[in-house]
Structure formats: C-alpha cells, structure tokens
Design a protein that fits this description.
Length: 360
C-alpha cells in the first residue's frame, strides 16, 4: 500500500490497486493453482504468492520456520522502496510516470447527479464485478475437483456438508458458497451506498444540493446502484458457480438452477441496502453499524455449523429465513416479506435524508 501511495496521486486509487489488483490478483493466482490440482506442476507458484506463505510454513507437518523470514524481508524491501519513491516525487502528486488524466472539457454525463454518481462508482463497480465473477468461476473450479480430496478427509467433508445443510455433498457445498458470496454482495451494496455518505462528509454534497438538484435525486443517484448492481451481479455469480462442473460433463441445467438460487437470495442484499439507507437518513454517524449486520451474516455462514449456534441466532441475519435452492423448496412468504421490509426501510431512509441537516 505504501509503495502504491507514492505512485498514484490519490489515496483512493492506491487503495483500489492494493485491494483489487494486488490482493485480488494473489487470490486469483491461488485459486488457479488450487484448481489445477497438486499434480499439475504449478505448485511452485505458491512461493510467489505472499498470501500462501503462512501455509508454506507447515506448522503441523515438517515445520519450515525459515519461511517466516520471507514476509519480514518483503516488508523491509517494500518500505525501502516506498521511502525512495517518496523522496523522488512531488508532494501532493504521484510519480510523473503515472500522471492523473485531465478531465473532459464537456460535461456529458456529469451534468446530472446520476452521471456524477456513475463516474464516482464506476471503478468500484468494475472491481466488484470482476472480483465476484472471477471468484465464482474459481470457486466452482475448486469445488468440481474436491471429490477425491474430500474422500480422504471425511472430517472436512462433514464440516462442508454441515455448512450447506444438505445430505447431498454437491448441493451442500454449492449452497455454502452461495451463502458466502451473497454476504460479499451485501457488502458491495453497503460500499456503493456509502459513497453518498462519503460525499456528504467530504463536503461535496452540499454544493450540489445548493443547485436545482433535489435531495431525492441526489440520494437516488447512488441508491439505484446499491439496489440493482449487487442483485444482478449475484445472479451472474450463481450462473457461473457450476460452470466448471458443466464443462467437465455435468448437467447444463445447473447453470439456470443456481442462477435462480442466487435470485432467491436477492431480498438479503435489498435488506442490507435498506438498513444502510435508514441509518444514512436518520443516524448518519452510525452508518457503519451496517457492517455489524454484514459481519454477523458472514460469521453465521462460516462458523455457525462449527460452533453449534442455536437456530434462532443463525436466522438473525438477512438470509436467515430465505430459501436456498435446490436444498430448500422455494418459500415465497419470507421472500416477499423481506423485500417489503427492505422497501419500507429505503423509503423511510429517504424521508429522513430529505428532512435532516446536510453539513457544509
């Protein structure tokens, strides 16, 4: 992060490259290695992925303590590089090799709040889209090759089956992965709507509202992305998740089946958006409480089956009462009720946003 902070002019760009390109790239390489299998000849590439170094220490089997020196060495090298770049660049700007692009002289889409919101959200939307879709393909590739490995590890197989809640291992693991990816899509909704809060705290929103732009339009310009993008993207995730298995000779109907399964989880993303909006409208300083909801959802998805949480506690999250197809039979009652609750929360949040003070 410190090296990229010297390269680019804005901290936002440096963070985007750090999370999206560096960490996302390492995660993608790791998934490709895992998907290729232990006998593919690519196992040596793990040494090039810092995220893998903790596992390469092998603390429980033939410990290699010297691997712990690698992250320390990398930290020293990158810190020295960051200091060198900091001394070479102009303060308040990045390296001359990566200058910021000049703005468009014609306003174009920036003439309205929706165009401005798209310009602010564009890079994030592209990053989330690539990350989730590639993650779905990579996860599906790993899942399609886990049969033999899990046959030798019945305890791990039992754990994954318990996470998915089905006696059918294939259905169970796909359902578990959909639950995890739905939580990430919910985080996407919170991040996208959080741009509106950031525009307010940075003092950019008040000048816009001083023009003919209404508060409804200003809020809706960000809200529409937070409502629509995660749901549409999640359906694509569901369709891509079984793609590797279909290509290996599986039933092509699985693509539509898991796309519908992902669509059945849409009220969860909408509810996250509703909670974020009502906090933004009435209690903006507590906006980050939405991350407590997302964190609890991810915790129950990952660990509820392992720590034997009571059923009522597991259901206290946006996806707790929804149907996970094809494990469950579609129940429209919680689907419609949760969607209605999300709609009410969004409207109440908009009412609060319209009536409260917007600081300059």
């Amino acid at each position: 992060m410190q090296v990229l902070a010297q390269v680019f002019e804005s901290a936002r760009t440096a963070r985007a490259w750090t999370v999206g390109v560096v960490f996302g790239g390492m995660f993608l390489v790791r998934m490709m290695i895992d998907g290729a299998g232990p006998d593919s000849g690519y196992a040596w590439l793990r040494w090039l992925v810092p995220l893998e170094w903790g596992l390469l220490i092998r603390p429980w089997s033939g410990e290699r303590w010297w691997v712990a020196v690698l992250p320390v060495g990398l930290f020293v090298v990158l810190s020295a590089l960051a200091l060198r770049l900091e001394s070479a660049r102009d303060h308040g700007a990045g390296l001359r090799a990566v200058p910021s692009r000049s703005g468009n002289r014609r306003p174009g889409l920036l003439a309205g709040p929706f165009g401005l919101a798209w310009r602010l959200q564009r890079n994030g939307l592209i990053g989330w889209t690539i990350g989730l879709l590639v993650g779905a393909v990579g996860t599906g590739s790993i899942v399609s090759q886990t049969g033999d490995s899990l046959a030798k590890n019945p305890q791990v197989a039992a754990m994954l089956t318990k996470m998915g809640g089905s006696r059918d291992f294939e259905i169970s693991i796909y359902v578990a992965m959909l639950g995890i990816l739905a939580g990430i899509a919910g985080a996407m909704a919170a991040v996208l709507l959080g741009h509106l809060r950031r525009e307010e705290t940075h003092g950019h929103l008040e000048p816009m509202l001083a023009t003919a732009v209404s508060r409804w339009r200003a809020a809706a310009s960000h809200l529409v992305w937070a409502l629509v993008a995660p749901v549409v993207l999640m359906i694509g995730v569901g369709a891509l998740l079984p793609m590797a298995q279909v290509r290996a000779g599986g039933d092509g109907a699985m693509i539509g089946q898991y796309a519908r399964s992902a669509a059945a989880l849409a009220p969860g993303m909408l509810l996250i958006c509703g909670i974020a909006m009502i906090l933004l409208g009435w209690l903006p300083r507590l906006f980050n409480l939405v991350w407590v909801v997302i964190g609890w959802s991810l915790f129950t998805t990952w660990f509820a089956a392992l720590v034997d949480l009571p059923g009522w506690a597991v259901k206290l999250q946006p996806w707790g009462y929804l149907s996970f197809l094809p494990r469950d039979t579609m129940d429209w009652t919680p689907f419609l009720i949760e969607t209605a609750i999300a709609a009410v929360l969004v409207m109440l949040g908009l009412v609060g946003f319209r009536s409260r003070d917007i600081p300059a």
